[in-house]
TrEMBL record:
SUPFAM superfamilies: Galactose mutarotase-like (SSF74650). It comes from the Bacteria. InterPro entries: Aldose_1/G6P_1-epimerase (IPR008183), Gal_mutarotase_sf_dom (IPR011013), GH-type_carb-bd (IPR014718). One of its GO terms (biological process) is carbohydrate metabolic process. One of its GO terms (molecular function) is carbohydrate binding. This is Aldose 1-epimerase. Pfam families: Aldose_epim. The lineage of its organism: Bacteria, Bacillati, Bacillota, Bacilli, Bacillales.
Length: 330
């Protein structure tokens, strides 16, 4: 019997894809019908992600598609007044965070199409899903670019990899801002000693809504994160925007649960120059959110190279990879 399996189950009215690796006691659950959300991952008996209290909460709880598992963001975070311009074209996004912000886009709340899933000894367990703007006239009405997003989650040797490919199927260059919002299970409420390590270069001054208020600088916190900084008293609804430092390898962030003797490790692609730290007040969790650009970047008066503003040209494909795993104390 193979150590890997991939199956579709019906759970609370949703079709859920379950990926398993019996040798590592690892399992992941993805819900394509609700934003292709990787909403559960456990490895070696340790919970890695915070799932919703129920899958029906994804339908009924306000802002639920943003609050659990791993929401996929396009654009990441907020756009003031939902307004910005790119290459002379004005964009007006829905104000889905009253009274005056657009928040996180619609990829994390819409249904995705499952293209394939399966398992083998050589390739592990996987599921591939796709979302095409071209099939949604209501999205094209305010974002007239038929982008196609394809995401594969693969569980192999106890590690969960996400591979994303975004293609511009249209004729015009489109503004591009992409991010992920994993909610890692971190036991703040249990007296745990919690330590975070991030290969950070600089910290951006931001508001409590993560809007940028100035240029990034080196701070005591950004310096401390390189070696390890305590987050045991990180405030609820607090946020920190960081730029990753230069390096030959893709950045790896680590959250150490020192009392429990294990670490959540999260490796992100170099195409994500920024990471937002965030602690919610509705769950015992901590987010490390990789972004291609800082919050509301298209409206900032700084060089695009600094803020991550970019476009995706007609016919162009952009690829991103992340990897998530558990490390235990020797």
């Amino acid at each position: 019997m193979s150590r890997y399996s991939a199956k579709s189950i019906l759970k609370e009215g949703y079709s859920v894809i379950v990926l398993s690796d019996s040798q590592w006691d690892a399992a992941a659950q993805v819900i394509p019908e609700a934003g292709c959300n990787l909403f559960r991952f456990e490895s070696g008996g340790h919970p890695v992600l915070v799932p919703p209290p129920s899958l029906t909460a994804l339908r009924n709880e306000p802002f639920a598609p943003f609050k659990y598992g791993t929401p996929i963001l396009f654009p990441p975070n907020r756009v003031k007044q939902g307004q910005f311009s790119f290459l002379g074209r004005q964009y007006s996004l829905p104000l889905n965070e009253p009274p005056s912000n657009h928040l996180h886009g619609e990829l994390c709340s819409r249904g995705w199409e499952v293209l394939d899933y399966g398992a083998s000894q050589e390739n592990g367990a996987f599921v591939t899903s796709r979302f095409r703007f071209g099939l949604h006239p209501d999205i094209l009405a305010y974002f007239p670019h038929p982008l196609s997003f394809t995401v594969t989650y693969r569980l192999y040797e106890g590690r969960l990899t996400m591979q994303a490919a975004i293609v511009n199927e249209g004729e015009d260059e489109a503004p591009f801002a992409f991010g992920l919002h994993p909610y890692f299970f971190v036991p703040f409420d249990r007296g745990e000693e919690l330590v975070l390590k991030v290969p950070a270069e600089e910290e951006w001054p931001v508001t409590k809504e993560a809007f940028v208020t100035g240029r990034p600088v080196k701070t005591n916190f950004s310096r401390a994160l390189i070696e390890c900084a305590s987050i045991s008293t990180y405030p609820e609804l607090g946020c920190t925007m960081l730029t990753f430092g230069d390096g030959a390898e893709d950045p790896v962030c680590r959250i150490h649960m020192k009392n429990r003797g294990y670490t959540i490790a999260y490796q992100v692609d170099r195409q994500f120059p920024f990471v937002l730290l965030f602690r919610p007040d509705w769950a015992s969790a901590f987010s490390l959110e990789p972004y291609t650009s800082v919050t509301d970047a298209f409206n900032l008066p700084y060089d695009h190279e600094l803020t991550g503003v970019k476009g995706i040209k007609a016919g162009e494909e952009l690829r991103f990879t992340t990897c998530l795993w558990i490390e235990t104390a020797k």
